[in-house]
User: Fold Preprotein translocase subunit YajC from Noviherbaspirillum saxi.
Amino acid sequence: MKVLIWTVIVLIVVLWLVRGKKNKTRSQASTHAPQPDSLDEPQPMIQCAECGVHLPMAEALPGPAGTVFCSDEHRRLHASR
Assistant:
C-alpha cells in the first residue's frame, strides 16, 4: 500500500512539472510572435457614401464621381437611385 501511494505522488509531481514546462514554452512563443507590418502606419479613413460607415481607404470600393462604398451591395443601392 505504501508503494502505491508513493507511485501516485511521483506521477502527480511529474505531470505537474511537464505541464509547467509546456505552459512556459507557450508563453515564450507568444511573446516573440512577429507583429504585422500593416499596423506600423495609420491608414486614412473614408466614409461610405451610402451608410456613412468609416473604413480604411484600402478596404473601400470606388464608385462613380469619386464616391466610395463599404460594400458592393451599397455601391449597387447607390447606383440604383
